[in-house]
Amino acid sequence: MTRPRFLPDNFTLTLIGVVVLASILPASGQIGVGFGWLTNIAIGLLFFLHGAKLSRESIIAGAGHWRLHLLVFGLTFVLFPLLGLALKPLMSPLVGNDLYMGMLYLCALPATVQSAIAFTSLARGNIPAAICSAAASSLFGIFLTPLLVTLLLDVHGEGGSTLDAILKISVQLLLPFIAGQIARRWIGAWVARNKNWLKFVDQGSILLVVYGAFSAAVVEGIWYQIPLWALAGLVVVCCILLALVLLIATVSAKALGFNQQDRITILFCGSKKSLATGVPMAQVLFAGSTLGVLILPLMLFHQIQLMVCAVLAQRFANRSETVAELMGQVDP
């Protein structure tokens, strides 16, 4: 039986199921504490495997394209936050203050790694540059996101300073990543051979955090705090934000003289926000009772960006290559 095209992917359906499960059977008390420890272990394993998967050769291959990387970082860490602030008169009335805070958190996050590279590859963009740009965005995000969250939301982590938040994120996310890079010489080939089932570690970690976050939020009455009109407004503001970033990324890349392959890379690396990084970071930066509300915009934006970018990547993939593209020349 053919899968209906209107259905989301399996992971998104599972994510929805986890939110429903947390709404009906939330983890609380000692069970919630134990679940939190399990989640932290899963997150550490997730970033350890990210470190083991990332090839240093791939990073070096794309590192020299500094103009492209500067534009991508500008889109990710400057344009998104500025749009989040500028659109407050539109966003805040549509979604309410709590979800607007979640939109600002979304704007402070680094770009995705896997999907940005996958879409760039499908669209026949500059893959080495995409690998380098996406990976660097994730690493820099460990330090930049807490700073941006402090500026945008006036949040300093769980009762500490911005430096404390960066230190805690570094311990929970960066150290496992570095350990994975060190272990790559011994386990890199095994990770590459088993990448099809290791993706469930990525997905499982996110599902654990989402279940724990929504369990705490349900205990605090999240579904009584967020009306249906605010959820509908959230869909609208996520679509507007993504459309503006895609438009500005396209116009900027063309105005700066990048060729077609580079423009594709800029489009897919500069317009994404990482669910895999954003959910674990939120667990460090925010208290449990507010976590569910703050990651809800990220979960929705993640699905919208995947669906929109899948369509765009397929359109790019179906194009006819020009002589300039084949020769690697810059478009006039």
UniProtKB/TrEMBL annotation:
Residue stretches spanning the membrane: 7-25, 31-49, 70-87, 99-119, 131-153, 165-183, 204-223, 229-253, 274-300
Family matches, as Pfam families: SBF_like (PF13593)
Transcription is among the record's keywords: no
Keyword annotations: Membrane, Transmembrane, Transmembrane helix
Membrane among keywords: yes
GO cellular component: plasma membrane
Superkingdom, natural source: Bacteria
UniProt protein name: Bile acid:sodium symporter
Phylogenetic lineage: Bacteria, Pseudomonadati, Pseudomonadota, Gammaproteobacteria, Pseudomonadales
